[in-house]
Amino acid sequence: MAGPERIEWRRAFPTRALAMLAWYVGVGGAALGLVWLLFGGEPAQLDDGSPNPLAVILPLALAVALLAAVPLVLAVVRRPVVAANHYALTVRPGAARTLVLPWARIARVTVRRLDHEAYLLIRCANARDALGDHPSWIDQGVLRSLLRGSRAGRAVAAEYDLAVRMRDFVGEPHALLATVAAFAPDHVFIGSDVEV
Q: What is the mean pLDDT of residues 2-9?
């Protein structure tokens, strides 16, 4: 057999993730500055020697701000992935898990333009065996955002188990789909409504 053993889509620069992180740092920094101005000078103990409850507000606000920044930093560091070989389609739609979906469990792979953006949509077949990973709630964040979108987006997204934003990758959607289709077996339906 000639050709590559595996392909992986090249990821685009994380402009949106960095913009969200910069926005959060700006707004969070302003909020922490306000908390510091209000509660930064609070003594650790009151005049009677008892602990001052207001003195813990600044460290608590800092801890909450750092904890809230973790998903935004993960979105910059752990970028989405789409890769394929003759055994499976490997997908990481967000920053959480990387799913290995064997072709035997995939029924449909489609690129659709919904709400002015192209998405790779994957429908898994009902299988009784435990091959590969199963998309769970944490993996379906992009799909849930489509379900919250326009009526057309909801109708299409309801038929699928997983969605990946195509803007996270370099290249035209139809060309990227063709690279995955080269590895898909005959039983997997490959389709696109994105114009060439």
A: 79
